[in-house]
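INFO  loader      accepted 1 record
INFO  loader      residues=324
INFO  predictor   begin
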Amino acid sequence: MLTANDWPIAAALLSQGDAHPTGEAGSPVERWRVDLLEIADAGFSDVDLTDSWVRYGDLTPRQATDLGECLAATGLAPASLSAIRRSVIDERHGAEHLAYAHRTLDVAAGLGVGVVSVGLHRALTPEQRRQLWFWTVEGHRDPVDDDDTWSLAVTRLRELGRHAGEVGLLLSLELYEHTYLGTAASAVRLVEDIGLDVVGLNPDIGNLIRLHEPVEGWRAVAEATMPYANFWHVKNYTRDEDAAAGLFSTVPTSLELGVINYREAVKIALRSGFQGVICVEHYGGDGLSVSATNRDYLRGRVLPRREYSPGVSRVRQTHGEDVG
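INFO  predictor   done
INFO  writer      dumping tokens
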């Protein structure tokens, strides 16, 4: 069983900007090397290949090889890959996003990644992009009680799950506001309807509690979703509510200081049998340094110092071994 010393904690690449190649002929190897060295210099040995940094499903074979060589040269293990904002049920681009996700799974397998996280969230709207914090303006909502759209989500995510299993990967579905993964009950229903051992949840509770509206309690979300978790994005926010006046306010902060009590959340995860990769994220400011602080908080104060006997998880979980 994993302990604080060996639990894989990966740095998200959100803080490193966009480093995707501008043309098929070349790979920005030097940019990749510099960005990855910065992650390593922050004390990380594992990295989450967030696709806001590089669109992995659009790399040429040569570029994917170059990226693998950069990872090896910097000593970073690609523990996970997060493909974001490409919903497979998008009315206009769903089929295109599905094809991208399939290509991403193949690249992830070639790079030695163990788990790929996808979701149903959409690209930010122009109005969201104009805000300091994009979640203060409402974006897309998946249609409630639409059986056809729900069935499409199940079918396409099951297709990705089968592909993931064939190439030795886990597929994780990221909780995200106002989608079919936007409440604990809906997320659990979705993963159960998909019905594959290699498909589980990424209980990114921060995505839900940051909304400037009434939200589910973080503890209830954790209790419901952690038995299905095979990967975990962690981040935190301060949250202030004046329910009588209808006022809500959230701001990103460290794991230790936010409204989600991660000491308790980790206990819930352990009781549920969670043994997956943890990816530390942060929006705003020096996100990498805050992520490093969050890693140290988890290792030094929260994760078990000795072997812990977890409960029974409802999904298969891995941190590098063969799941094929």
